[in-house]
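From the pipeline queue, job 12 of 40. The input is one protein chain; the requested action is below.

Action: predict structure.
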Amino acid sequence: MAAILECVPNFSEGRDMAVIKQITDRIQTVEGVKLLNVDPGASTNRTVVTFVGPPDAVCEAAFLAAQKAAEVIDMRKHKGEHPRFGAIDVCPLVPISGITMEETVILARKLAQRIGEELGIHVYCYEYAAYDERRKNLAYCRAGEYEGLHDKLASPDGKPDFGPTTLNEKSGAVAVGARDFLVAYNVNLNTTSTRRANAIAFDVREKGRIKREGDPLTGKIIKDADGKPVMIPGSLKNVKAIGWYIEEYGIAQISINLTNIQETPVHVVFEEVCQKAEERGVRVTGSELVGLIPLQAMLDAGTYFLKKQQRSTGIPEKEIIKIAVKSLGLNDLAPFNPDDKIIEYAMQRDQKGKRLADLTVADFIALTCSEAPAPGGGSVAACMGSLGAALAAMVANLSAHKRGWDERWQEFSDWAEQGKTAYEQLLRLVDEDTLAFNNLMQAFALPKNTEAEKAARKQAIQQATRQAIEIPFRVMTVALDSMTVIKAMAETGNPNSISDAGVAALAARSAVLGAFLNVKINAGGLDDKEYVNNLLTRGREMEKQAIALEWEILKIVNAKIGS
């Protein structure tokens, strides 16, 4: 797996788009780096930028961004709602795939040293990259903000990890770190009161609020034996939050950082804030994401709200995301575009429209009909299987909403989930089968002039042939598994959709048999005969099972139809 690193620098400029573009243009000069998102905020006067790529390329882009920010941003003139202490205020590196946190820490510290030494900026290493335990907390590093930097640098505790100890008035300081994926998330309130927003923030954030005698706002602070204020913890773990007023929208918000969305998901935070706000006579009107969010977090949110409504969760991914967007009110302040805000979609944006699965039905059929050898039978088999599984999911979803069957919604939702998973897997295999065919053709086209070239060509052909066998075999496996859902829907599903279950069975059986033809034709080209014989034996058994299941399902369907 190729190593992918994410960088999410925050720049202290959110109003002058020409300045922001100069910075992002420098990021895009680095080969291999993909700019995913640029999210400026006028009231905060701050821009969050997200880019990904190979680790070394991402670190180079981060350095160039810091260099340009130091040129075009003057902290002596900066004002904004968000805490900050430098032109490039924070620069976290986030491991996405193929790289460990330990490796990310090494890269973050190298980047920090380079920024400090080459750009003359004060650098504090935070989170996992921190040298000082106290500096793991970004708030500790940024305490006093830009205005307090002079005094901070003069104190022993404020000495930066890298860079000068004499104040860089123009650029200030930067916190460079390695951290887990963080979601920056704001919840909108129907009030202009920062005090009320802060009260709700203190209710939910892990740190909580200072304990006082009597009045919780003005009472005497209670301290522990060491003289430190005693804290009343908030209700949510892994949550940092403050309240502020956003002049741009004329509302107060709760600004939240979620540091572990596996333990404390976005939808849990939203629901908790809604409850705490209501207790204080305030209403949540919606929310907004700053930067990007993982796809799974949105799917988890949509699934949560669907279950809360006792609705089936076995619906297409895009529909689940729509539910999440509506339920969280992510369109409250500005349109929410999943292609821009969901990290996996943003990374795949350039591939949209290039896959067979993105074609219209008419275009897919026309392409199949053309003189091109692919897509061929393997992709069509996968497509038939996907349609069969989708029909099974449809019957389950209709059954979950059938009048009088309300108590059975979870049963049918579970079946719909299985059908949806199968159709999504088979839909991906439509493209993978054609890709396997193309790889095989490329292997045959390799040069064979020398013995070395002949050996390399033979190895490439064998690898591509194995792939061309394994992909249709996966089509067989998934399509056969989907017939379990189809049979259940024929037996127990909405009787008004019984014919759909029958068509699904025909499509699934055809997918199994059609994919097996592709397995057999490609098997002849593989030298590993033991592997081939084992696969063909299993394939013949799956073929029999598919035919038997189709017969059983059609018998049920015809009996219920009455013919």
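Job complete. The first helix runs from residue 17 to 27.
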